């Protein structure tokens, strides 16, 4: 449920404020930029992975000039990398209709953000503030890890993270979940109080004509970021504590005292801030989890639409690649119920698109569908097909030697295989999607994964990956004795109880 990583490095959101002008201009020059394009991402109101994108042409000298259609203010990210991936060069922006923002900076290889960035023109104050906030409170701050990773790790546990992101998650572990309530609460209060002080001090010297609307949105980001950090602490801490087999916590009765009716508002400038939306959705899910009748009556108007549509979006994301007919019927019914009370039904369009995608997935990879009879090779170069394992339950681990989360699952995989070593009706296989066989073989020697090691060509763009719907790893798949899917996105070996239950059911134990 928790998907805050993009909220940290790609804070992008539209608002509901009406402006006389319907466009903004950004121009400037970025030295040492290797790309001839920049991409401006604006976060959609619904979901955490959907964007609108403007492509900006960059001349040979690094200069650019782009007029953008913009009816509402928006937090954005300007990046040199397409499709929202983590690029070498990016910077956070706040744009509003009427802005004429000029940007200068230098692309520095190996760093996340523009070096020596500066702003001028209309909108410079808001963006200068964002740069200073980024430097002071994000990656240069230990408190950043202590707070933000509580939410982030909840979203990534059991999912996929690679490279830099995975390392950051690991760094956040001990600084987030292992904190006790008082220490954590003090950290949260200190962290967000300092942000409020910085914002108020900056506002004193900024041009109020262009800064005031931004200040309202930014204050909402701070206030609701703090509320969300406190709301999610107990459940996320204890969820992780169970996984790590460490002591759980129980907060006192006053912990949730901030959850008063007044906290639920739907001001346009507040809707602009992603932390506001995240908090509202998490608060809604919190009440739903407690079976509180207020969950359906607290949120009204556009705010209610955003909350319900986002909650459905997240539910569909959780079902992605594992959807059953029963779950599909559930989300269809919830969508119909939400649309019946919607103020702005267009906000549910991303959910409708998800359902179409889920239906396609269900038709192709759902339980009982025939799995693709892949062509692979074993360590000796011998051709292997899925059909070679007919009569056995197949537990397939799709991995690559460069994938840290994949390697992290290997010890659990060996333990799992050992538990079933006496059974002749199950086989464990590891299928590498490394680009080169040499990398695969080197990875085998270094990591010694469980099961029969196999290799397929094509990496993520190959027929194997496409035929199994694989666009991220590690991925685990259970196939029955007749070559049909049981679960195309099965539990990981580290989810001991879940995977043993799934395999036992497949084996009829």
UniProtKB/TrEMBL annotation:
Lineage: Bacteria, Pseudomonadati, Bacteroidota, Sphingobacteriia, Sphingobacteriales
Compartment list: Cell envelope
GO MF, one example: isomerase activity
InterPro entries listed in its UniProt record: Redoxin, Thioredoxin-like_sf, Thioredoxin_domain, Thioredoxin_ResA/DsbE_sf
One BP annotation, GO: cytochrome complex assembly
Protein name per Swiss-Prot or TrEMBL: Thiol-disulfide isomerase-like thioredoxin
Keyword Amino-acid biosynthesis: no
Coiled coil: none
Signal peptide range: 1-20
Database matches in PANTHER family: THIOL:DISULFIDE INTERCHANGE PROTEIN DSBE
Primary subcellular site in the record, as a coarse category: other
Thioredoxin domain boundaries: 365-508
Keywords: Cytochrome c-type biogenesis, Disulfide bond, Isomerase, Redox-active center, Signal
GO CC annotation, single: cell envelope
